[in-house]
Amino acid sequence: MTTATISNKAIAGVLEQIAGLLEVQKANPHRIRAYRNGARQVRESNLELAHIAETGGLEALQALPAIGESLSRLIMEYVLTGRCRLLERLQGAVAPEDLFDEVPGIGPELAEHIVRELDIRTLEELEQAAHDGRLEQVEGFGKARVEAVKMSLAGLLSGYAFRRVQEALAPAGKTVEKPPIGLLLSIDKTYRREAKVGNLKTIAPRRFNPEKKAWLPILHTEEGGWEFTALFSNTARAHELKRIHDWVVVYYNRDGDEGQA
Q: What total of structural domains would you count in the chain?
């Protein structure tokens, strides 16, 4: 997707979807309001935000009313990639299998083999496995396929679009902060407790859910200035080892510093 196809209406639609999902999933009202206000500002703006993102970057977006650092980073990601990881996560769509499936030469079945046998989650980890010989040991991979994957990853990880996103979302010299371990453990504990007693909203994950049942509890909370989303792991590995009600993934974000634990 190019910036020519990213209209203010499309950006506002993403923000509104996020606000709606956060509301259904009982997130903090202030967070919901921030996305709704951002959506309204984007829709009513006479400026083309895609153009602003391309030419002025994060600082130019942050200068707009009702658009802070977190929303600016989200808009920048959507403009440059056509995707929004936060929206996908709230929809239950994010999984390493989905990411690997997008690499030429790897389909859904091979993607699941990779995650199950190597327990890796990122394109960078996949590239390392391709070069150190581990990928060739995965069922369905021979030397020719591994070489093809290496070439595909070289393009994906060093291509212009990837560099633009990394440079735009991680300015040089900025130290990426992470929540204290104690805080992450507290979120993990809270999630397990609330999920056990049935106090959390449940979503219907797209993977390993042929009946489309809303079974996966999700927690949104804010502590210590951080925004957290916690849910049980829904990967092939978790299902294989019967740990889908044991392994917890915690996503965090504060002022654009984001990650998972």
A: 3
